[in-house]
């Protein structure tokens, strides 16, 4: 049972939106909270699917208004087998905290190190959104200068 006023209530409770929140499985998220478009903002990022197409909606957590959206794509590209003859929706999102975005790795030449500061405009003063194909590569999105920047990483 979810609390009244949750992101899911704002999406599913509005019959005009007709959006569905796919559930990727235990310990995976389709709804996250953070400051995604500006320092101090209180927002939800919600992975929604409508008619076989999903996207990430950014909602104002105070009133449920859609602030922005990003990365609209066909759901079929996010399906994979779990190895037990079951197909799973494998698109998940996670918060990338501002503190993590500002870390300078000790070794910036390592293939495993992601140095966000090399790719994102300064100042990095709010959170990002990591979108992943479960157990595969991911992309971190960061809003600045009026649009979404993205930084890719491998699994």
Explain the layout of strands and helices:
Elements: H1 7-12, E1 31-34, E2 43-50, E3 53-60, E4 66-74, E5 79-81, E6 87-89, E7 91-96, H2 98-101, E8 128-133, E9 138-144, E10 147-153
Antiparallel strand pairs: 1-2, 2-3, 3-4, 5-6, 7-8, 8-9, 9-10
Fraction in beta strands: 35-45%
Shape designation: flat
Question: Would you report the number of β strands?
Answer: 10
Largest sheet: 4 strands, antiparallel
Strand arrangement, major sheet = 1-2-3-4
Spatial extent as radius of gyration: 16 Å
Q: Structural class per helix/strand content?
A: mainly beta
Q: What is the CA-CA span between the terminal residues? A: 33 Å
Number of domains: 1
Helix amount, in percent? Answer: under 10%
Low-confidence stretches: 1-16
Mean pLDDT: 78
DSSP helical segment count: 2
Name the helix and strand elements from N-terminus to C-terminus, one letter apiece: HEEEEEEEHEEE
Structure write-up:
- This protein has one domain (7-146).
- The protein is built from two helices and ten strands, in the order H-E-E-E-E-E-E-E-H-E-E-E.
- It has helices at residues 7-12, 98-101; strands at 31-34, 43-50, 53-60, 66-74, 79-81, 87-89, 91-96, 128-133, 138-144, 147-153.
- It is flat.
- The chain starts with 6 loop residues before the first helix and ends with a strand.
- 26% of the residues are buried.
- Residues 1-16 have low confidence and may be disordered.
């Amino acid at each position: 049972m979810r609390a009244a006023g949750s992101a899911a209530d704002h999406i599913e409770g509005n019959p005009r939106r007709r959006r569905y929140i796919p559930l990727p499985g235990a310990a995976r998220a389709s709804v996250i909270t953070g400051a995604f478009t500006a320092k101090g903002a209180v927002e939800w990022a919600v992975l929604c699917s409508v008619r076989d197409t999903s996207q990430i909606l950014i909602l104002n957590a105070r009133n449920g208004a859609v602030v922005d959206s990003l990365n609209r794509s066909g759901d079929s590209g996010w399906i994979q087998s779990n190895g037990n003859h079951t197909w799973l929706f494998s698109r998940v999102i996670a918060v990338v905290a501002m503190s993590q975005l500002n870390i300078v790795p000790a070794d910036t030449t390592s293939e495993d190190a992601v140095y966000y500061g090399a790719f994102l405009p300064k100042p990095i003063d709010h959170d990002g959104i990591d979108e992943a194909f479960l157990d595969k590569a991911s992309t971190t999105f960061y809003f600045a200068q009026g649009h979404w920047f993205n930084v890719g990483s491998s699994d």
